[in-house]
Amino acid sequence: MAKQAKPLPTLDWLQPRLKLSHALSLFSFLALAALLLGWNLLFADLHGARTWVVLAIQLVPLLLLAPGLILGHARTHAWACFVVNIYFIQGILAAIDPARMLFGVLETLLSLSLFCSALLYTRWRFQHDRKLAGEA
């Protein structure tokens, strides 16, 4: 016996959630980039490594996602859910070190916030687009 499809939410229900999740994902994205930039420029002990190399390695994945996140593309938000796991792992590892605990906790929280808001945006955006296409 085939499973019955759940009805899609109404557009009135989806639109404010889309705006909120997009705003939260943009805030988390920008805050994560600012945290990485600020930490590496002001506080990090890089043990002789060039600052611009470390910043490039950490910020290039985020910069690749920036145009799609700003424009609100659902697939870019879905890709952000994959990419942000790198920063989540880095944050957890940094939180274990007492000298970088604050940075690690902030990075973990921001990456978790970006993951959840981007995930919700992706789901609701695809539902919104299906509803606009006339699906019941």
Automatic annotation (TrEMBL):
InterPro entries: DUF2069_membrane. Pfam families: DUF2069. The chain crosses the membrane at residues 20-39, 51-71, 78-96, 102-121. It comes from the Bacteria. Keywords: Membrane, Transmembrane, Transmembrane helix. The keyword Transmembrane applies. This is DUF2069 domain-containing protein. Signal peptide: none annotated. It comes from Aquipseudomonas ullengensis.
